[in-house]
Amino acid sequence: MKRKGSQRLLRIRNKPLKRTRPLGFRTIIRLLLIFIPVFLVFWGIHHLFEVVTTSESLVIKNVVVLGDYPNRDEIKREVEGYCLKKFKSTQPNIFKFNIEDLRRHLGSLPKVEEVKIRKQFPETIFIEIKTRIPIAFILYQGSILGCDKERIFKLEAPSKYNLPFITGVTEIEKERIRQATKIAFEMKEMDLLSLVSEINIKDPKNFSVYTLNNTKIYLGVINYDLRERLAKLKEILDYTERASLPIKYINLGFERIVIKPRGGFRDSPEEI
Model-level pTM greater than 0.90? Predict the structure, then answer.
C-alpha cells in the first residue's frame, strides 16, 4: 500500500504543467482597437483644452458693471488689478477666469453688499453690484462714515441720506458701534429711527439717544430686553406727542422708567 501511494504521488509530481498560450495576433488587434480610440479621445480633449485656454480670441475684453454701485470705474479698476495679480494680464482667457474667486474679491470691498458675476462668451463678463445702505452716520476724526450691521464704510454723498449720527466715537471700536447699529436697526423696525438725531456711545454702560425734539433717552446697558424697552419708549413718545408734553429726558436704564418733563410742567422726574 505504501508503494502504490508513493507511485501515485510520484505520478502527480511528474505531471507536466499546462502552458499558457501566447497572445494571438487577433487578441492583440482587439486590444489595439480598444486602446487607440480611448487614447485619441483623451488626446483630443487635452488638445482642445489647450487650444481654448490659449486662444487670443477667447480673452476678456469687456467688463460690464451693473447695479447701484456709485462708481463703476472703481469696480473696473478692481477687476483689472485682480487680473494683473492673478494672470499677469488685464485680458485673461475667459475659460481660466474663476468667477467665484473674483466674487469673493469684490465682496471684500467695504461698500459692496452682494456681487453677482456671469460670463458671456467669447469676451465679456457682467458684474452686478448691490451697494450697502447705511443705517447711521459715524462722525470720526472730522469724517462722516456710513455703517450697517457688518461694516463701516466711506460715503460718496452723505447728504442724500437722512440718518442719525453715532457720536462719542474716540476710536473705531467695532463692538460698541455694532451695538449702536443694533439700536438703529431695532428703532427702524419700530418706526422710531426717523425721530432720532443722535446715538451716543461714549458711556458703554449707558448708551443714550437724542430725538429731533432734543429729548435725551438713556438706554442703559444693551442686552436681550432692548426691543422691550424700545416698545415702552414708543408708547411714551406717542403719548407725549398727542398730549403736547415737552420731555427733557427719559431713563429706560432702570426697572422703573423715569421721565423728566421740561420747565413749566413738573420740575421733578416721574417714575412709571
Answer: no
